[in-house]
UniProtKB/TrEMBL annotation:
GO terms for cellular component: nucleoplasm; ribonuclease H2 complex. Residues 2-62 form the Ribonuclease H2 subunit B wHTH domain. Pfam families: RNase_H2-Ydr279. Belongs to the RNase H2 subunit B family. One of its GO terms (biological process) is RNA catabolic process. This is Ribonuclease H2 subunit B. InterPro entries: RNase_H2_suB (IPR040456), RNase_H2_suB_wHTH (IPR019024). The RNase H2 complex is a heterotrimer composed of the catalytic subunit RNASEH2A and the non-catalytic subunits RNASEH2B and RNASEH2C.
Length: 62
């Protein structure tokens, strides 16, 4: 993903409606492990998928 999105936009998928349930278990701190993040204001944080962060996170899991 090249653009930043809110957590809801990042996780939700029209083809897989149940993906929206992930928002309740994946908070901003967890998503930041595999995404770049920016604070837009006091109430809004946006994310962009980062492949390198994901690979680093996965390597630590093994």
């Amino acid at each position: 993903a090249k653009k930043f999105m809110t957590l809801d936009q990042l996780i939700c998928d029209e083809e897989f409606q149940d993906c929206s349930k992930l928002v309740s278990v994946c908070g901003p701190d967890q998503v930041s492990l595999i995404c770049d993040s920016k604070d837009i204001d006091d109430d809004t944080k946006v994310f962009r998928y980062n492949k390198e962060k994901t690979l680093t996170w996965l390597k630590r899991k093994v």
